[in-house]
Amino acid sequence: xxxxxxxxxxxxxxxRAALAKKLDDDLEHFIEEMAAKKASExxxxxxxxxxxxxxxIDQHPAFMTDxxxxxxxxxxxxxxxxxxxxxxxxxxxxxxxxxxxxxxDGNKHFELKKYRWATDCYTEGxxxxxxxSYLLLDLFHLSYFAAIPAPxxxxxKCLDRKLNSVLHGNRAAAQKRIGNLRSAIKxxxxxRKFDPTNLKAALRGAECLLELGYANQCIExxxxxxxxxxxxxxxxxxxxxxxAFH
Length: 246
Prior knowledge:
CATH architecture: Alpha Horseshoe
Low-confidence stretches: 1-5, 86-90, 131-159, 241-246
Helix content: 55-70%
Shape: globular
CATH topology: Serine Threonine Protein Phosphatase 5, Tetratricopeptide repeat
CATH class: Mainly Alpha
């Protein structure tokens, strides 16, 4: 059998842990490079540009639409590692179901005003439903807030973008009730990245920015949210037309 077509074997726990650490280290280095570049810029501060943000963040393999084989460069090893995760999803459906259970449990705690317990439940759900939700670090936050410290390990590949968006949006709501406004904003950015039509997350992010006194950033956030929402709805409508005639 041709080696390229040979089925990949499932990773062992040791291999999974080693791969998680490698991806962690690589992403942390990537974020440090972006932060250093931002700090070294001596030009007049410009308004937040969503298109430019997409170009910058898409340079990392974690955000690539297609993980192309045979690529060379700084992230060739990272691409290979991410591809390896594709063959380790036997329990993917169970993880997604468990993530949904954590969402429901979190909602119950939220209704009882046990916001820290709710936050913990949403965090567990995110870990189950995403390879690394913290990867969706918005460059907007690199401009105004401290970078997110990298967690101890990467989790399961993203299974359901809508569910991930809801989990991050719900955790943002709980964080806001606790008073962790910066953490809430980061979750709102991730919720919007997973689902640009998540208006609750967009509005909550704007509220948090206003409460922190970032009026200009709030306006930029609203404008970029309107742009991503319009693009998502247009793409969704085009998809409906395509399926209607094919």
